[in-house]
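Need the bound structure for sodium ion, inputs here:
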Amino acid sequence: FGIETELRRAIETGRMRLHYQPICDLATGKVTSFESLARWRTEDGLELSPTEFIPVAEESGLIVPLGRWAIEEAAKTLAIWDRMSDASRDIRVAVNLSAIQFQRDDVPALLREVLSRNGIGGNRITLELTESAIVADPDRISQVMQALKDIGATLAMDDFGTGYSNLAYLQRLPIDVLKIDRSFVAGMLADPDKIAIVRAVLSLAQALGMRTTAEGIETKELAQTLAALGCTYGQGFLYSRPLPPDEAHQFLVERN
Ligand code: G
Ligand code: G
Ligand code: MN
Ligand code: NA
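Answer from helper R.:
Posting the output first, comments after.
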């Protein structure tokens, strides 16, 4: 029970932060967006990873206020970056939302309200969802996704290939980007099976008119190979680790 109380307090007192990891166009190397990743700095000075506290947040229901907070924080940060320079004008920020958020919350209404209050266009936001959001309630998620598209948001399927892939939904739902999980990308140059999987996902995405992001790119050689295979975007330590908002803005100014 203790960790729930602490998690709630962390959100309220600013101990929860978003860091931002650049996602680059593999053809040009330019930053096109940032994925926001939650970081919890506890009072004892520890930095907890989302893999440690998201499951607790999901079980306790605190994932709903956490998701609301993340959307608000992403929009505020975009507004700050837009005031700092012109570099962020066409840049999107991606927010990870748990399947539970889509079941329990009116995400389109929330997003519309937060964006308008912060003066940010819907085309500046990407929502990353996982296959579990679709499995939970395909009919509802279909309507929600269409409403999000109407706002102008980009929709990305996170961790693609690691969940219960039902290929029928891929063509029915308005998914813009498939994110190829790091477990297939990292190490693929030394593993023919991984290359085969990545190729298959890329050709599936192409056939369905979707763009692709490869996660976990740590070397130039990997970026070049993925570009040659037709992958659209790349994300990983080659470009940058996730950065606090000011450093992310600086990265953008220097790189683009
Ligand atoms: O930051 P890190 O790479 O450790 O993230 C681990 C996982 O936690 C990633 O899969 C990411 O999608 C997820 N995650 C990060 N931030 C958030 C968040 O704000 N909300 C949700 N639901 N998941 C997040
Ligand atoms: O897929 P998810 O949204 O869960 O992925 C984000 C997580 O992956 C974050 O925890 C981030 O720190 C981590 N990450 C991002 N890029 C790389 C990388 O190039 N290599 C490794 N090992 N981890 C990465
Ligand atoms: Mn993600
Ligand atoms: Na992922």
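Comments: The chain has one domain: 2-255. The beta strands are 16-25, 31-41, 47-48, 92-96, 125-129, 154-160, 177-180, 211-214, 233-235.
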